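Cross-posted from the bioinformatics board.
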Amino acid sequence: MTVSEGPAGNPLLSVRQLTKYFGSFAACSGIDLDIAPGEIHALLGENGAGKSTLVKMLFGILEPSEGAILWNGKPAVIRSPSEARSLGIGMVFQHFSLFEALTVAENIALSLDPKISLAKISDEAAMLSQAYGLPLDPKAHVADLSVGERQRIEIVRALLQNPKLIILDEPTSVLTPQEADRLFETLFKLKAEGRSVLYISHRLEEVRRICDSATVLRHGKVTGTCDPKQETPASLARMMVGADVSDVSRGTGSQLGDVQIEVASLSVPARTPFAVPLRGIDMQVRAGEVLAIAGVAGNGQGELFDVLSGEHTVADNDAIRIRGNAVGKAGINARRLLGAGFVPEERHGHAAVSEMSLSDNLLLARSQPDRRALLSGGALSVIRHGAVRSAARRICEEMDVRKSGDDPAAGSLSGGNLQKFIVGRELDRQPVVLVVNQPTWGVDAGAASRIRQALVDLARAGSAVVVISQDLDEILEIATNIAVISEGRLSRSFAAGDLSLEKIGLMMGGIHDSTHSEAAHAH
Amino acid sequence: MRIELQRRSQSSRLFSFVSPLLALVLTLFFGGIMFWMLGKQPLDALYSFFVEPLLEVWSLHELAVKAAPLILIGVGLSICYRSNNWNIGAEGQFTIGAITGSILPVLYPEWHSPMILPLMLVMGMVGGALYAGIPALLKTRFNTNEILTSLMLVYIAQLYLDWLVRGPWRDPQGYNFPQTKSFVPEAVLPEILESGRAHLAIAFALVAAVALWFMMRFMLKGFEVTVLGQSERAGRFAGFSARRMVWFSMMLSGALAGLAGISEVSGSIGHVQPTISPGYGFTAIIVAFLGRLNPLGIIASGFVLALTYLGGEAAQLSIGISDKVSRVFQGLLLFFVLSCDTLIHYRIRIVTQKLRGGAAHHA
């Protein structure tokens, strides 16, 4: 137990009995927390545990209902993010606050003194991003960047302000292991300079590796403080979720069946100047197989998902086949009618409409494949609200989706619960082919394990599952086969047992060995 | 020092319901102040503006006559706005609908047939829809902003109408007045009751409002409108096409505006003249928002705005002030509706200290 007062004596930041009410609901209740100078402090907790609320109070976005924040031992009232920044607190959000129409440099400039010239900011940002291994083009427009690249802007932006305490919310969720390692080096460097880091993560391994102490939240209360290096991932997870997180059981020896989804030498030019073109994609997934596609953010995953789902059709109808049917020119609903299901990466505004109820969001993906059950009135297509609602209820029960009220807006659910609903929405149909992009991005450990188990079970029941993921632990946990995407090229698929982590990492880093092209058909 | 709008973490359900009423009350209050500054008794003036028109049968008929185009156009616009397409040019579609609908009675004045009226209505709708198709084409083809193109097309339509009735369509026996021949009786939209002028247009308006309410509430098409309005990407995931929705919503609202146009010319005026609308197409925007973009709400708000037109005429007679006062009331109303809605979602914060940063951090 090496928490609170570190060797340097006084903590940099102390939080005493901090409480935040939303109405009568206490999102945070009596939180105590001490962060010593030069320490990397982990904040652990499931989605909805109160981590975001706590952090927002520290960063001046929310006003505490009760309790005190002490900065260098003195009471501090933080009324706005800029006050937090002038104290010396920097923050990297999980959901980025960037203007899509502006360039990287312009976005950074917005949070700095307006007198500094854009050119200078560009230079400094370029320098910092170089130094910390976070490659960024200051002139690129944010709209054209991937999630991973957008996060780099946030990190660089926080670092530019030279903070004493930097708060990172799930920073590695979109980085490769190598990039994460570089980020950790950055963090160690910051630590060596005497700065403190408040590190929010679901990745227990990571927390054990880099954090000096950890505070665990559950249901808005501190359930424990510990030295994560003395704990195992399982014991940390237990503190977090209050129950043992079950391992995904993969089962063995399932026989592979026919090819259910097939892509043959598919090339797609980039639609925007910054999009990644797909080059000569070959892929076959059989019934019973979980093909995981590993890769760093922004290497063509989004583009691949779009052409697989039919949200963007391709010129060559034969390039994509689902259950033997050529579907390159077919739209997403035609592919759904063939038995395919799709789960996009972005929950809000792509997989779901935040403002709409869960039952409406069910209809979003199911109006055509389940036309008969959910619609009536022939050409009028009258929605059978009762049937839709009971289907939504069934999915919530099946996937243990926790929500308030019978049919709340999708936006009111925590990330993990919404993701369980979105995945459940497809599983409920027993799809023959399921394509999932980042199934557990920003999802808490309990929900992630449930989703992974569901994907594995689906494949065992005889479906072909494609999982596009940046989370290697996830890939190793569920994949029967692994392929790596890099710069729009997809490697051949390897049996999961035949690939070492190191080799995957190398391939993700864009090392194409010479066997790539000839091995492409060797599945 | 500056004023900032800060998003509320929760917006009040109660107030999102009463906000249109609150806006009405504020409009009346500030209207009263305006009358007082004009040297009139505020309460008397408000009475003659808003109450007197409701006391006589003939003026209730007038109310229905004026509400009909407002509701017809307003419900069409509500579908547009819900789907995130901003058709501001209903006035132009109204005008073109009136012109295309009048082709038969103007060019074939001797044609007496019961077929003529249905044909006129259909042609008016087609004309309005095609005219709204221009901004739809420009938007889907060239990514042009439909707010600008639809608005600019209003002036083209109005000037075209002006040219028509002063030129080729002018009645040769009309003593040089810029208007066409009067429509034959078969081409005139019949009145509903013996007691006054209210004609079938109000029935069209009510049917359209209920039909579109049903569509938005119960049909997959309405769901499609809402989804695409909230998120184009989610719409694409659902298999809906944003491009087709541009066409659908623009042409639907254009058709309803065109129907309103030909109904107005056929039912209320009886011939074509340079000015056929006191700005119905623009006022309908207020109607749509005051009705919270809900077709049933728009029926109510259509009557409210119709009352401002009527009140303006009445006030001109009884207390001797310009009928431009109607426009003032409409402006006040739109202003208060929008600001009430804004304040439901945002709180006002006056920031006194000079901020060095922070602008980018309101996620």
